[in-house]
Amino acid sequence: MLPSPEHARFRPTVAPRTVDLPGSPDVIVIGAGAAGIAAARRLIERGLSVAVLEARDRVGGRAVTTRLRGHAVDLGAHWLHAGPINPLVALGRSRGEPLRRAAQEQHLWVGRRPGRADEDAAFSRAFDIADRAITHAASRTQDGPAARALPRHLGPWGERVALVHGLVSGRPLDEVSLHDWPSLEYGDNYFIAGGYGAYLARLARELPIRLGCPVTALDWSGSGVRARLADGGDFDGGDFHSGVLAARAAIVTVPVPVLQAAFRFDPPLPEPTRAAIDGFLPGIYEHVVLHWPSAPFRGRDRLASVVGGRHKPPGMLTRIDDTPFHYFELDAAVARALDSAGAGPDGARRFARAVLAEHFGRGALADLAIPAVTAWRHDPWSRGSWAVVPPGHAAARATLQEPVGERIWFAGEANSRAQWGTAGGAYEEGLRAAEHVADTLSSTARPPSL
Ligand SMILES: Cc1cc2nc3c(=O)[nH]c(=O)nc-3n(C[C@H](O)[C@H](O)[C@H](O)COP(=O)(O)OP(=O)(O)OC[C@H]3O[C@@H](n4cnc5c(N)ncnc54)[C@H](O)[C@@H]3O)c2cc1C
Questions:
Q1: Strand pairing partners for 23?
Q2: Residue 51 contacts residue 442 (beta carbons within 8 Å)
Q3: Residue 290's pLDDT is what?
Q4: Looking at the predicted structure, is the pLDDT value of residue 238 above 70?
Q5: Which sequence ranges form a coiled-coil region, renumbered to this chain (predicted)?
Q6: Is the pLDDT of residue 414 over 80?
Q7: CA atoms within 13 A on the CB side of 26
Q8: Is 358 annotated as a binding residue?
Q9: How high is the pLDDT of residue 444?
Q10: pLDDT reading at 449 higher than 70
């Protein structure tokens, strides 16, 4: 078992208020992140009884909001991407949630000065050219590394474009499938006041969720499924005896790197499903959370590109929700380098300070504090930030959408093609799996033993 990373000690702003599990559920949902919450809500709407088993002592998975210096700060997902197709945007609107559209304006910082208008224009142009080229190549050529489709004539901005796409992809573009890459409409993004994690925790209220309940194995040898708990502990009532809970079907929302490393299926999964799971790579994207009141960036929720120095931070989000908080993002390359040096969270803090000092001068950092550094890649319940499809593996998401034995469904961000790597995609996939399960179970009789 991996030791708990630093981010796991921060408490969520919205504490779970859940209800007891039914003694004999129709469906077990494993994991209470975006996908598990969506699945449980939809299954209950469809009249089925549900038991959600969650390893952590909180809900939300890779979306969690904590309170730092009086402000709500997300330590995982923060953007509601792809507004027109994100079900959490539509649901948020119908609930009157405090959504706001993300700013289109960005900051450009070149060396030790703000970027000029002509530099800004050249940077945007390079992005547009690269986007068109990759999208075109994806529709015309065989799969391969997405990096292959980056045009060579992007000039000085080419390196920056590759760095940003590598950051948001979760791996450098030579490790990302061309056929999987251009699948998310990044425009029309939203934020939610109070944080994305807090929003998901509100959606989980009154759901039948058992926290602190890791599942180690799923037995599907009989007619239904049996989830085996890590500690083998007993729970009162129903079928929850000797650390085993039985149901007619299961929706598994456990992140794929956890399925790869620390989860068993008895009997083993069919080969195509196993190969789909095993082929994903863990995407790496981490927040170094800055509290920096005097930062030179003005305007709420703006991305900042800092270029032209020895260190090139792949991305920043500044003045989050109009507070003195900013994210300094770590990509896979930097995180790997810090890990190989055994640097830990304080090493990430030193790194962020060194980069900022190079561009803004040490004097500008007098009021900088770094209250949190995430390490989702080392978190035993995520082992990465999202799942990345490497070249040649583009069919994996569709394979994972297929049920196994009419009683195991997978859901989660890894399944989503159109909203890959996102909480919105995970939620969509949770709804999709729940609909399939409800349709399937309504057409088959409940066996007498359940
Ligand atoms: C730093 C960071 C920033 C991000 N930024 C964004 C963003 O801005 N916008 C966006 O949309 N997405 C973002 N993402 C990605 C987003 O957080 C995920 O895609 C999404 O939350 C995944 O939801 P999920 O339900 O598939 O998985 P998870 O949220 O990981 O939920 C799975 C649940 O299963 C539980 N679990 C794991 N193993 C077991 C087990 N054995 N037994 C029982 N339970 C188990 C976990 O504890 C977890 O609660 C970001 C991620 C990170 C790490």
A1: none
A2: no
A3: 98
A4: no
A5: none
A6: yes
A7: 19
A8: no
A9: 77
A10: no
Please identify which residue in the block is written with the tokens 């089925």.
48
d(CA 44, CA 246): 18
6-65+195-280+393-442 fold: FAD/NAD(P)-binding domain (3.50.50)
Lowest mean pLDDT among 16-20, 78-82, 114-118, 402-406: 16-20
Ligand 1 atom 20: the closest Cα is on which residue? 423
Lining residues, ligand 1, CB within 6 Å: 30-36, 53-56, 61-63, 76-79, 81, 214-215, 253-255, 258, 263, 285-287, 374, 376, 381-382, 385-386, 412-413, 421-424, 426
> Residue 173: what residue type?
L
User: What residue ranges of the chain are covered by domains with CATH 3.50.50.60?
Assistant: 6-65+195-280+393-442
Separation of CA 61 and ligand 1 centre (Å):
4
In angstroms, what is the span from residue 33 Cα to ligand 1's centroid? Answer: 6
Assign 388 to helix, strand or coil. Answer: strand
Q: Identity (one letter) of the amino acid at 277?
A: I
pLDDT in tens, 17-59: 889 999 899 999 999 999 999 999 999 999 999 999 999 999 9
206 carries a ligand binding annotation: no
